[in-house]
Every structure is written in structure tokens, then in C-alpha cells.
């Protein structure tokens, strides 16, 4: 639960800073990039996981 709240707080801080500096479009770009990074990490994790019989 602590990790979830820390992640939410960090994301809200980043989003707020991006809105202040570059507007809402920067937040959408940040979210899209972070989703792609998360997808790549998940695919890599599943690809390196040993297969069970």
C-alpha cells in the first residue's frame, strides 16, 4: 500500500510539473511513454522467465 501511494504521489508531482511547464499534452505524452516502458519491462520479464512443464 505504501508503494502504491508513493507511486501515485510521484506521478501526480510529475504531472503537475509537466502541466505547469508544457501543458496538458506533455502529461498525455508522459503517460504514453511510461505505459510503453511498462509494457516492455513486462514482456522482457515474461520472456526471460523459465518455462515450466
Structural class, from helix and strand content?
Answer: mainly alpha
List the secondary-structure elements in sequence, H or E: HH
Estimated radius of gyration: 15 Å
Number of strands: 0
Mean pLDDT, all residues: 89
Residues in helices, as a percent range = over 70%
Q: Which descriptor suits the 3D outline?
A: elongated
Between the first and last Cα atoms, what is the distance in angstroms? 34 Å
Describe this structure in words.
With 53 residues, the chain is an all-alpha fold. The chain has helices at residues 2-22, 24-48. Helix 1 (2-22) crosses helix 2. It starts with a helix and ends in a 5-residue tail after the last helix. The relative contact order is 0.08. The mean pLDDT is 89.
Brief summary of the model shown:
The protein is mainly α and 53 residues long.
Name a few traits of the molecule:
53 residues, 0% strand
Describe the protein's topology.
Blueprint: H1 2-22, H2 24-48
Helix pairs in contact: 1-2
